[in-house]
Prior knowledge:
A hairpin with a 5-residue loop joins strand 4 and strand 5. The chain has three domains: 6-176, Jelly Rolls (Sandwich), CATH 2.60.120; 181-220; 225-282, Arc Repressor Mutant, subunit A (Orthogonal Bundle), CATH 1.10.10. Helix 4 runs antiparallel to helix 5 (146-163). The protein has helices at 6-11, 94-97, 104-107, 127-140, 146-163, 166-172, 181-190, 197-203, 208-219, 223-241, 246-252, 258-269, 273-282, and strands at 23-28, 33-37, 41-48, 50-55, 61-64, 67-71, 76-81, 85-92, 122-123. By secondary structure, the chain is an alpha+beta fold. The longest helix has 19 residues, at 223-241.
Amino acid sequence: MRLFCxxxxxDCHCKDKVGSHTVKSLNYVKRExxxxxxxxxxxLILLSGEARLFIGAAPPIYLKEGDIIFLSPGNIYKVEFDxxxxxxxxxxxxxxxxxxxLLYNVVNSNEEILDTPYSxxxxxxxxxxxYIRCLLTYLDSKINCPKVFELKIKELLLLMxxxxxxxxxxxxxxxxxxxxxxxxxxxLKNYSRIKTVKEFAQKANLSLSGFExxxxxxxxxxxxKWMKEKRTDHLVRExxxxxxxxxxxxxxxxxxSSSQMNDFCKKEFGMPPGKLRSYFLKNxxx
Length: 286
C-alpha cells in the first residue's frame, strides 16, 4: 500500500540523516527468538501474539496482545515468541526524555523512585487505538523520514502522558529513573563498552570523586561494585546460554586473559568456567 508519491519520498530532506528515533512494525513466528544489546531505550507494543522477555538471570516477563513495555539501553534482551506475533518498536533517544513537554516530569521526578531494573508492562488504552491505526498506515505506505518518526514518537509519549497515571508511567520507565535520569541513562547506555570507573568518569566529564558521588545517588551503590555485578551477570549469561568459546567470553567480558577469567570464576562460583557451563547443562539451565 502506497499513499504518498515517489517524488515526495525522494524530496524528504532528512531521509539520509542517521537519527536515534525509529519506528518499526515487526513480525515473528511461533518459537522464533531474538536477542540483542540495545544502544537506546525502546518501547514495544504487542499488537498480536504472546512472548516471553528475558533480562539477565531474572525470571521471564510474560507479554501478550495489548501490552506495552519499556526496554532500557545497555542491557541484552532475549525475546521468545510463543505465538505468531506482530509488534511495534519505538527507539527512544535521551533527548526525547529531556523534552519538558513530554515525559520530563515523570523521568526526572524525585518522587517515589522504584528501586528495580525492570519495567512493569502497561495495557493499551482506547485513545491509543486510533494513533496505532494511523501509524500502521504510515508504515504500510513505506514512509522513510526520520523527522516523521520523531514526531510520531513524541505523539505517542504525549498520549501516554494523558492516558496513564504518573505512578503507572513511573513503573513503566523504572529502569532509567533516578534523581538524575540523564546520568542514569548515560551509565546504562555506555557501561557495556567501558571497562574501568576512571574511564567512565572521564567520559562523563567528571572528576573521579564527583563521578562516584553522582553514581551513588543514582544507583545506591559504588560504581566499582555495580560494574562488577554487571560483569558477573554478563559472564554467567554467556556461559549458561551461549555456545561461545571461553576465550571469546573472556574478551567480551573485559578480562585480559582466559586465565584471569578462570581465577575470577573460581573465586566467585567455586569452579572454573568450563565446569560452570557443565553444571548449567546438567541442571537444565543452559
